[in-house]
Description:
Number of domains: 2
Distance between the termini: 75 Å
CATH architecture of the largest domain: 2-Layer Sandwich
Order of helices and strands: HHEEEEEEEEEEHEHEHEEEHEEH
Bound molecules: zinc ion
CATH class of the largest domain: Alpha Beta
Strand order of the largest sheet: 3-4-8-7-6-5
Low-confidence stretches: 1-27
Structural class: alpha+beta
Amino acid sequence: MKSNIVLLTTLVQLLFTQTACNQTSKQMKYNSLTSEEKAVILNKGTERPFTGEYVDNKATGTYICRQCNAPLYRSEDKFDSRCGWPSFDDEIPGAVTRNIDADGRRTEIMCKNCGAHLGHVFLNEGFTEKNTRYCVNSISMKFIPATKKVIEKAYFASGCFWGTEYHFMKAKGVIETTVGYMGGHTLSPSYKEVCTGETGHAETTEVVYDTTKTTYDVMVKLFFETHDFTQVGGQGPDIGDQYRSVIFFTSSEQKQVSEKYINILSQKGFKVATLLEKAPKFWSAEDYHQEYYDKKHGTPYCHIYRKIF
Length: 309
Ligand SMILES: [Zn+2]
């Protein structure tokens, strides 16, 4: 019995030591704060408008919590609200908690991980499609630029590939474009074969881009803004299956981003005809099709940029 009590006491002691250790290590993970940082992060102050470090920051990267380093916002969701503080229309899922202010009017936002005060969130102001403005103090965050160069590929079919490529090859952050065929059932098709309509391929542009300079969001927006995505069975005067509008996604992330913009367009009242398909093998087209309009010093007849987003 005595030995049992000793064992129990040791266990209880161990448990307490363990808990104490956990608390210490959790606290140690937090960064020490300057008095200016404490005034905002702990005492829920607000920095003066247009003075914060990140108000005009347009670089690609992630905004993390100044106190605990938890990722909070992505540069893709930052927009210029001219309110004087960094503004985002979305958070990194689950990163931020909301709390009604003492005055009962405004909604405070805090880091979900450590409770650091970030700022306030405002709804229904009409700034962006999401109708949400996370108004965040720069001092509550730290910006981590996306410095690691990651090369990604995206595949878009939007009618005659000369026109699709024309816009993508000129976009910022795009390293290379190639026109070709995708989504059919024959191997290594020629242009002549595709034009018969019997191979099932769509004229497609492969876009290779640098994720430190641009994003898939930007690519998808450009895709929708440079063709008539409501047209079924062709594009402009080009009628036939090879001219159908398709996003061939290469990852679940690309699929989600594409779905996001299709939803936005549907909400705007557009009847989106664009298909969303998992990317199969891409077959490069013949050399004379590559960078066609630049070689001919021409401009596309049915791919004209119009701003939507
Ligand atoms: Zn935090």
